Amino acid sequence: MTQSDVSASTGDSDTATTTTPSRSSRAERNAAAAAADLDRSRGAFAASPGAAVQLAEVEEVDPGTVFQRDAAGFTDWLAANLDRLAKELGLSGLREVGRDVGVGSFTADLLAQTDRGRRVAIMSHLEPSDHLHLGQMITFAAGLDVSAVVWITTRIGEEHRAVLDWINQHGDDEVRFFGVELRLLRIGGSQPGASFHVEARPNDWQKVLRQRQRVGSPLNSRMREF
To answer: pTM above 0.85?
Structure first.
């Protein structure tokens, strides 16, 4: 090996020696920067706990402040939202086929029809349930050619729920009775939103809904009628 070779080798070694610490220093600086970013992120959350999630107040709205007590205006809204009611009832769609249908001295607000051609009488009562409207419900079942009667109110009393359950249990399968509560909710300063809550229904209705996909099931056959 010549002197020049030794010098070249030594130069290469010096170059390697100076290069390696440079790469290591970059890696260390990057790691330190990442750690600093993480610490700042943690510090931001620790400085203001709960700031990441903010929930608005939910307020229940009296339907009487939106619709008149005699359900004027509500019938129009309901006719345009029958699909929402049908979904809660588990029916195969609903469309309006009549309005203010008289039976004796009583009047059903809406007469609807399912996709299967079954007719449903709908009675709106934007106050807590009472004996008078319970009697009207039975009158509609007797005086109209319907397969179901739906009573929409702001609250179904326990005594009226018990009556509907008894009728659904001991009556025939030709007419089914539903008691539905209407609730209006406002979130923050938003417009009120409506939701339906089925509080009374035929005793086997939940089984019907669970087994509606079973081919050949008697319960499924009854569901298909709707």
So the answer is: no
